[in-house]
From TrEMBL:
Protein name stated in the entry: Flavodoxin-like domain-containing protein
Gene source species: Phaeocystis antarctica
InterPro entries the record matches: Flavoprotein-like_sf (IPR029039)
SUPFAM superfamilies xref list: Flavoproteins
Length: 127
């Protein structure tokens, strides 16, 4: 089992800290490793640093991101663009991939609140 964790942030490191915390607290690598001895759990990386093609061999993807005025963070734009292309040009190409999206945002911006996290979740379902 291969697990990848990506984040998108606007420079505050909130999302990278959340991603690391989810791995530390939520995944409990020892428990996961005992159920899946050959599990490969990667450290969280900015989404644009992930080799998008590696998702073909990934079993589970954890995404932590936010949006600003509905747009993706700067270190999330290439990833989200590649995901859009995959979903539209080759629907189902990531059907094997289980995923979870953790959205971060401020409800004060209700018009665009959680726009990117919701959109990424939708694209991962389509791809």
């Amino acid at each position: 089992m291969r697990v990848a964790t990506v984040y998108g942030s606007f420079g505050e490191d909130r999302e990278s800290e959340i991603a690391a915390g989810v791995l530390r607290e939520g995944w409990d690598a020892l428990r996961l490793a005992s159920r899946f001895p050959s599990a490969s759990i990667s450290e969280p990386v900015a989404a644009d640093e992930l080799d998008f093609d590696s998702l073909a061999e990934t079993d589970f993807l954890l995404v932590v991101t936010s949006s600003r005025l509905g747009f993706p963070p700067p270190n999330f734009t290439s990833f989200s663009h590649n995901l859009l292309l995959a979903a539209k040009s080759n629907p189902g190409c990531l059907a094997h991939l289980q995923h979870a999206v953790f959205g971060n945002g401020h409800p004060k911006w209700y018009a665009t609140y959680m726009s990117m996290p919701r959109y990424v979740d939708q694209l991962l379902e389509e791809a």
